[in-house]
Amino acid sequence: MKKLASAVCAGLALAMLPFPSPAEPPPWAPAHGWRKKNDPHYTGYTGRKWDKDYGVIQGRCNTAAVGAVLGGAVGGAVGSQIGRGDTRVIAIIAGTAIGAVLGAGVGRDIDNADRACLGHALELAGERRTVAWTNKATGVSYRLTPTANHNRGSVPCREFLTEVRAGKKTDKVKGTACRSGEGVWELAN
Is residue 71 included in any domain, yes or no? Predict the structure, then answer.
């Protein structure tokens, strides 16, 4: 009986010891999936939190998922107006000027899904981190790499290099885009 009482007391004493609980990893440490499970938001270059990255963080833009979000939306400056208030919001590069910058032959093939991938890459990709995708409808492949970050006054801007390949023709374009609104990037002069 004494042994049983001693064992129970020892068990209770061990149960009363503080047990360390797992803490979230520090911001600089690799999280090995912790952040994906516990913080579902992706923080963009401008500090805005995004519910989806559409593969941009891994270096690939999922045009099928972006296209599903865009649905029937028309026009370059749809940006944050798509699915406002839910998880369908994406960043987009505004206007048709990007087509002119990319060149007449390749630029005319850019569509809203490509604009959305360009915008979301500018929003979420790290500096010197390339994001690539291919538009299956047009066969045009894109590689966008943000190369430098700066502000124009209080407006966040990013310099970038884009390589666009259509068939055997490849255009390389350097540009600067600035954030003009919630989820909207515009080419800067």
Answer: yes
The pTM (predicted TM-score) of the whole model is 0.67
SS3 79: helix
Return the number of other C-beta atoms located less than 10 Å from residue 69's C-beta: 19
Name the token pair of 104: 């007449």
Q: Would 29 be classed as within a structural domain?
A: no
Q: What is the C-alpha to C-alpha distance for residues 17 and 8, in angstroms, rounded to an integer?
A: 15
Q: Which two tokens stand for residue 93?
A: 């590069």
- At 90-120, the pLDDT tens digits run 777 775 555 555 554 555 557 788 888 888 8
How far is residue 77's CA from residue 89's CA, in Å, rounded to a whole number?
A: 13
| Total of domains in the chain | 1
Read off the DSSP letter of residue 86. Answer: T
